[in-house]
Sequence to fold (293 residues):
Amino acid sequence: MQIAVTTPTGNVGRHVVAALVRAGVRPRVLVRDPDRLTPEIRNEVDAVPVDQYDADAVVAATHDVGALFWVDPTTGSENPLADYARATNSVVRAVTENRIGRVVFQSSVGAEKRHGAGEIDGLAHTETALDDTGVDVTHLRCGYFFTNLELQLDALRTGTLKVILPLDQPMAWVAPRDIAEVAVTRLLSPAWSGRCVQAVHGPDDLTWRQVADILTAATGRPIGVERITDNAMRTQLRQAGMTDGLVEAVLGMSTGLRENFVPEQHRTVRTTTPTTLAAWAYDHLRHQVNDAS
Fold:
């Protein structure tokens, strides 16, 4: 069975590709720029240059594919949800026209709301569109990525993370590599069919206060956390170069989940993955924070 992987250089996709290679699979990778693949991986995959927003190109690139790992590409536009809709059209056409047997889709905790969660609404749209095709699909409802902290290196170096969620509100935190492991086992397993939802919650639900304590211990420098207003966060995001539409979509991922939201999938042995934030931060974040000091 030919397996195709999108975003093969991303936080999750690169681990999916490496795990498939270790499993003896030569995956077909759909990548905007094949030169971004590492040299050692380039010889182990079939790379196809593809813009995921180009439905014709995605259909052509997934000819004869039996299973697909699909990640909606990141967007920086004024209308992120329109971009998600374009990407959704691509995957739906590919699945339908090429009769792809199964799809593993990287979604998010919060997609079960369907509306009112900012950028996550775009993932919800992809979920429902894939469901409507009748394909065997697993939606991975992932927690908050550890790697999102790498977008806040300056704040970590100054010693204060700024967030808009309540500081004592717990949420699922997860290592992208663990998401990839779940994705690969789903891609290779013949034991499931139909529509499945698989939450990937990491090992613990953590509050931002707990996260700050963990990062302090891992990096060896004092790190605190401060709750700021939504408008203050808007200003920060605009100063980072985001369009107004993207700012609202990013804010919505927090504001839409901070009151009366309970994930559809509870924490169980099925949804819990092993890598702790402490271990990840020591291995991956500590040097990034301290080397620039």
In short: The first helix runs from residue 13 to 22. The chain is about 40% helix and 20% strand. The first strand starts at residue 3 and ends at 6. The mean pLDDT is 96.
